[in-house]
Amino acid sequence: MTQEALHDLSYAEVEGSQRAHFRTSTWWLFKSYWTSREAPVSALLAAFIVGSGFVGVYFSLRVNQWTGKFYDAIGSGRFGTIPALLTLFLGLIMVAATLAISASVAADVLKLRWRTWLTTTLIDQWTRSGAYFRIERDKLLDNADQRISEDVKLFVDYTVTITSHLIHVPVSAVTFSIVLWELSGNYLLELGHLAITIPAYMLFAVYLYSGSTLLLTHLLGRSLIPVNIRQQKVEADFRALMVQIREGAEQIAFYDGASVEASRLRSTFASIRANTWRIIRVTAQVMFGVQVPGQISSILPVLLVLPQLMAGTMTLGGMMRVSAAFGSVSSTLAYFPQAYQSFAAWRAVVRRLLALLDANEIKSPTFELTVLQRPQQTTIEVGALTLTDPHGNPLSRIPAFSVKHGARCLIRGRSGSGKSTLLRALAGIWPFGIGSITVPARTSMMFVPQKSYVPVGSLRQALAYPGAETDVSDALAQDILAAVGLAQFLPLLDQPDRWGGRLSGGEQQRLAFARILIARPDHIFIDEATSALDDESEQRMYSLLLERLPHSTLISVAHRKEVAAFHDQFVDLTPDVVATSAPGAVSNQPKSKE
């Protein structure tokens, strides 16, 4: 699926041209789990659920037979048989209830196993090969996190519930259709001089009634699918905005932007409100198509068999059995119109998950910018590059240069000249452009952006990221935190917290340098990672790198001239002008001249 088609899927949903793809991909959601190592145990659970449903239908049939005997006993005055009949009834409902509870527990266990497997699988697909980054960078779809955290649960819940009903409904319908066929007798329809005998007329009546109800519900509720998809999106957007406000609370307070954020929240919630009104309207239509016929069904079978009762061709018990069987068939078939909203929600959830699956698999458009790894190479070599945006529009041209192992290279230039984009290209996360980059293979690299990611957890985990917290001993943490000026947080080393919100911008940048000192990479790439520090602290951070990692290659992007003193090689960039053939130049200048 193309990126354009995927974008349409996310917002306007899949229509006729996408239905074949929808069916094929939906099959993957089932097949992938039921052919996995989880399948044998889950298959046993599913078999128990299905078997319990069949046995439940058998007990329902026994209760129907009991109903006839019970009311025949009352109608004929055989009251002495009632205690035995009541004992039988209690036994039937106790066994049926135990079986139903066991099946419900088995269904919950199956849902949990399936959700666990599918969530893990989607997380692996989302995080592998940078899919999570490409989705956000290229704006492939909205709220990928919600699709994994919420839509997976909804998909599994709806699928297990709907599938079990789709298996049990036909069995129950056929079983009680046979009862109706045997008990309802014939109906003589007189049309003038023409007399037509309708055999088992109650059976035809119940299917005509149920089919009409289903058709009415479909006509009234077919717009539920798009409004449910829309609801998933607007709810997720509202949650994301509130998270953004919570994480940026201090900055918003500095800007006195509370009223602006409140307005944004109200505007976003207005979309939820408007779409919810649409759901209410459509749901009311569906309920009208279900509830009104449902009320009629309570009296309809009695009215249909009343002539036989009055003629003496049917006993009271027979009438009650026919009425109960009619109710069983109609209520069983009524599952389809009643489940219309659930099925619409299921389709909406499936489409959102399929969009995520497609987005995970979409690769970036093929460009001629390549990053090669060579085992015997020790230098980083950048050929003459043309960096572009994802649509191929030129952003900047980079002159060819190389950085020897252990060198300190500073990339300079005005804002918009392509410095940060060049670092992204070196990291392999910006494939848009023309040219080649060659880096040493089997060496460690660390890229430090201006604002480093700080995961929720302990400070030790934040120091070790992306490594394991066991890599950071107490002694190492004490040494590193003191070196970067964060010694005051040592007592809180193992305290879980949202450190990204607790630490100031400068403290987060100190934490980033602490990570470098702990990881000791062979190549260090720094993108304005000291912008929130004062001059003295900035110089201290760079001095630490040179003192403790003297053999590591350092490539920096910075605006402050003072940083040049810590570098011995310089790459000067200027914003790209299409008519300019060489907007950048490389110089190997001695530090004294800078």
Explain this structure to me?
Keywords: ATP-binding, Cell membrane, Membrane, Nucleotide-binding, Transmembrane, Transmembrane helix, Transport. It holds the Pfam family ABC_tran. The protein has about 600 residues and is an alpha/beta fold. The protein folds into 2 domains: about 25-360, ABC transporter type 1, transmembrane domain (ABC transporter transmembrane region fold), CATH 1.20.1560.10; about 370-570, 3-Layer(aba) Sandwich (Rossmann fold). The protein is built from 20 helices and 14 strands. The protein has helices at about 5-10, 20-35, 40-75, 80-125, 130-135, 145-185, 200-220, 225-245, 250-255, 260-295, 300-310, 315-335, 335-340, 340-360, 420-425, 460-465, 475-485, 500, 505-520, 535-550, and strands at about 185-190, 195-200, 370-375, 380, 385-390, 395-400, 400-405, 410-415, 435-440, 445-450, 525, 555, 570-575, 585. The strands form 3 sheets. Strands 3, 4, 5, 6, 7 and 9 form a 6-stranded mixed sheet that branches. A 6-stranded mixed sheet has the order 10-11-12-8-13-14, with helices on both faces. Strands 1-2 form a two-stranded antiparallel sheet. β5 (about 385-390) and β6 form a beta hairpin. The protein is elongated. It starts with a helix and ends in a 7-residue tail after the last strand.
